[in-house]
């Protein structure tokens, strides 16, 4: 019987079209444990049917086998036949063949569903330990039908420890204050298994029965060929015109080539031409699949060369010759069909065209217009050495800062600092700190001159002087000095600024708008400078200037203030079970900020009331809820508690910012509590009649865009999030 099972499994692997599923990830970064969510939903499969398939990263897929460890296991929840699920590990490129793995443990839940556990021992007993050569994973049914509802890879680790800071604050400092919940949604693989050869098509006009299905949808079937309109002009071949919804992770519109009954004559594809796809909703979700069954080229997924923003949530993706050829190749005569594919967001398709010329103009037209920079004013005069305190007469404060009795300006919050201008030949700044011993938590400083980063350093001495500008002749200069690391950890201070200049330094001009950002480690730029998920927390890899908040403010020409702390939430910080009310933002929102460390004069940000008259924002952006989800989970009562807490926080924000538009956002590292945020906003509006509150959901980070320390977003993800938020704020505010 086992031999029969193995034979049938082998037939199953090579008889069913590959299905690639998005991989979503969450990690407990405080302990090194975590959960990789491979599937969540409802996927029915009959007896001896392939359920799910994952290509590994070495095979241009999304599953990274490096996560498979001795303390980990695959866990599948399903209904139906209790013995109906198995795994197959396949390696064609490494020569290891394929191995069937059955679960060593199947338990029955109270609701009648089953939980199958594939342990490391189960896997290595059949496949071995050489996971570096693994090409593909299959999850198959065997002798009975099932409905799969979830699939995870779970890593276990010892309980987290705490690091106590007794000389600073009696409250113990967690070893890593991180929000662990994350659902990066990677781009599906376009790789076709080399041993699979589709059945030849007997006629050029008859489509093969093998249809690529990169991502299955339980309720949406691939769209049939649409009615196609005539070309709009002699250079444009219209392949689709209308309105067609394509849900998340769905293969949608099918566009056959001329030889298969369509209107696209592939002989016109040339180096000066391009495909143009216009759509609405999710900006970065669209891809095209180029398929050739008659030519034997399989199917290839291609990402856009560039995406043009037409208006709010209306885009045109351009696929130029080089981009398509780099993935598909140049044998366009063998092309049979093109499919539209969505990844981590739904779209509404409006039109698809092939334009035979003018690709460079199209790309130039799609390229974003840079935000115009305001050049500092040249001030004539006699050069002289001058020294200034960082007071309001000479500098503009960025964010919430504190000036002590000596005139030293203390900086604790992410990307907070000062700005000023001068005309001269030389400039230096003297900075201080209150602690240096804790190298993991030292303050990181960034100095920008005329928009360019010229100094990036860790403050490892109690006092340091940086000469950051020298020029042979007088030059008008704009200077920004900010703290790149986050508020809970060691602060820095600016004690004086020395210049050789023609006149006094002057505060930088006020920008057109003002925005306040409230968040957690995402807003802090946690780990953004280290694309190594196992790099571990340290302030040296945090960078507030690479966050979505910083980028959004720059794009909207806005002054900003950031209040954020890693691991914090609305009602609970990150937790492994019980509520963590210590690490929540609302109790500290009215203060200068939150920090485990004090300033040199003994004062602490958590005990210093903030004067909201110093910065009245036009818009407030809340990006909290990722850590709350570690407490709420699927518990309805806890979710209701979150809604209540969110409403209370909205009231708190409104009391301090009576004229601001409030933007309630979530999603970069997980969207689980977004429905509760929407509910909170509805209840708050109904109760208060305050309509100046709105919601916006970020796209979940994609693994293909890079994942940083403890599963935090890369700068590319931050840039995408900033683009989305910039568009939405601009749309709502009319900026």
Automatic annotation (TrEMBL):
Which UniProt key words apply to this protein?
Hydrolase, Signal
Positions of the Carbohydrate esterase 2 N-terminal domain: 398-505
Q: Where is the Carbohydrate binding module domain?
A: 39-149, 240-352
Compositional bias segments (type: Low complexity): 177-212
Q: Does the keyword Transmembrane helix apply?
A: no
Q: Respond yes or no to whether keyword Transmembrane is given for this record.
A: no
Leader sequence residues = 1-27
Q: Show the ranges annotated as biased composition (Polar residues).
A: 220-230
- Taxonomic lineage of the native organism: Bacteria, Bacillati, Bacillota, Clostridia, Lachnospirales
InterPro entries named in the record: CBM65_1, CE2_N, CtCE2-like_dom, GDSL, PCW_deacetylase/CE, SGNH_hydro_sf
Name this polypeptide is given: GDSL-like Lipase/Acylhydrolase family protein
State the PANTHER family in the record: ESTERASE, SGNH HYDROLASE-TYPE, GDSL-LIKE LIPASE/ACYLHYDROLASE DOMAIN PROTEIN (AFU_ORTHOLOGUE AFUA_2G00620)
Annotated region (Disordered), positions in chain: 162-234
- GO molecular function terms noted in the UniProt entry: carboxylic ester hydrolase activity
């Amino acid at each position: 019987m086992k031999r029969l099972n193995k034979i049938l499994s082998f037939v199953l692997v090579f008889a069913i079209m590959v299905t690639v599923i998005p991989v979503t990830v969450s990690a407990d970064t405080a302990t090194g444990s975590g959960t990789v969510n491979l599937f969540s939903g409802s996927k029915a499969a009959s007896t001896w049917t392939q359920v799910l398939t994952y290509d590994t990263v070495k095979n241009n897929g999304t599953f990274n086998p490096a996560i498979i460890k001795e303390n980990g296991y695959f866990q599948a929840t399903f209904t139906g036949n209790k013995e109906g699920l198995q795994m197959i590990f396949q390696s064609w490129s490494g020569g290891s063949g394929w191995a069937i793995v059955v679960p060593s443990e199947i338990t029955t839940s109270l609701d009648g569903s089953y939980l199958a556990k594939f342990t490391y021992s189960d896997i290595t007993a059949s496949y071995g330990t050489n996971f570096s050569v693994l090409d593909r994973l299959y999850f198959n049914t065997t002798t009975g039908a099932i409905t799969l509802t979830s699939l995870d890879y779970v890593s276990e680790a010892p309980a987290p420890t705490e690091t106590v800071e007794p000389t600073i604050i009696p409250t113990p400092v967690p070893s890593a204050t991180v929000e662990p919940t994350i659902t990066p949604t990677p781009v599906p693989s376009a790789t076709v298994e080399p041993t699979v050869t589709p059945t030849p098509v007997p006629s050029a006009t008859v489509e093969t029965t093998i249809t690529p299905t990169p991502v299955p949808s339980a309720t949406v079937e691939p769209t049939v060929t649409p009615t196609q309109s005539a070309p709009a002009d002699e250079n444009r071949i219209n392949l689709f015109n209308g309105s067609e919804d394509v849900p998340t992770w769905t293969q949608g519109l099918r566009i056959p080539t001329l030889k298969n009954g369509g209107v696209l004559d592939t002989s016109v594809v040339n180096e000066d031409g391009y495909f143009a796809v216009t759509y609405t909703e999710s900006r970065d979700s669209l891809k095209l699949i180029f398929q050739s069954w008659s030519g034997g080229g399989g199917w290839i997924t291609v990402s856009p060369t560039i995406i043009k923003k037409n208006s709010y949530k209306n885009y045109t993706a351009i696929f130029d010759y080089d981009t398509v050829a780099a993935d598909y190749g140049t044998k366009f005569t063998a092309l049979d069909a093109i499919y539209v594919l969505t990844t981590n967001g739904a779209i509404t398709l409006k039109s698809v065209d092939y334009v035979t010329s003018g690709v460079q103009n199209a790309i130039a037209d799609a390229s974003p217009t840079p935000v115009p920079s305001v050049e500092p004013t040249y001030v004539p005069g006699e050069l002289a050495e001058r020294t200034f305190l960082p007071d309001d007469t000479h500098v503009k404060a960025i964010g919430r800062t504190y000036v002590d009795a000596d005139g030293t300006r203390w900086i604790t919050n992410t990307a907070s600092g000062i700005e000023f201008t001068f005309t001269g030949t030389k400039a230096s700044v003297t900075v201080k700190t209150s602690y240096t011993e804790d190298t993991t938590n030292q303050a990181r400083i960034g100095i920008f001159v005329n928009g360019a980063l010229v100094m990036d350093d860790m403050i490892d001495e109690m006092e340091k002087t940086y000469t950051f500008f020298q020029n042979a002749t007088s030059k008008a200069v704009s200077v920004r000095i900010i703290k790149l690391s986050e508020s809970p950890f060691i602060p820095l201070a600016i004690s004086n600024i020395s210049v050789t200049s023609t006149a006094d330094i002057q505060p930088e001009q006020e920008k057109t708008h003002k925005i306040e950002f409230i968040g957690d480690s995402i807003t802090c730029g946690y780990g953004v400078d280290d694309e190594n998920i196992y790099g571990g927390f340290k302030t040296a890899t945090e960078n507030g200037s690479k966050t979505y908040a910083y980028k959004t403010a720059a794009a909207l020409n806005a002054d900003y203030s950031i209040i954020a702390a890693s691991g914090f939430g609305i009602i609970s910080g990150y937790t492994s079970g019980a509520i963590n009310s210590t690490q929540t933002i609302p109790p500290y929102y009215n203060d200068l900020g939150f920090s485990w460390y004090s300033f040199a004069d003994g004062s602490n940000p958590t005990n210093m009331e903030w004067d909201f008259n110093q910065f009245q924002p036009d818009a407030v952006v809340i990006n909290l809820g990722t850590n709350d989800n570690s407490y709420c989970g699927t518990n309805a009562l806890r979710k209701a508690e979150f809604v209540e807490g969110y409403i209370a926080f909205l009231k708190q924000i409104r009391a301090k910012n009576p004229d601001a538009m409030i933007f309630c956002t979530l999603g970069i590292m997980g969207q689980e509590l977004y429905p509760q945020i929407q509910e909170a906003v509805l209840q708050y509006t109904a109760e208060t009649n305050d309509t100046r509150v709105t919601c916006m959901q970020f796209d979940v980070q994609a693994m293909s865009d890079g994942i940083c320390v403890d599963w935090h977003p890369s700068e590319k993800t931050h840039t995408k999030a900033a683009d989305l938020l910039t568009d939405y704020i601009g749309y709502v505010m009319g900026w």
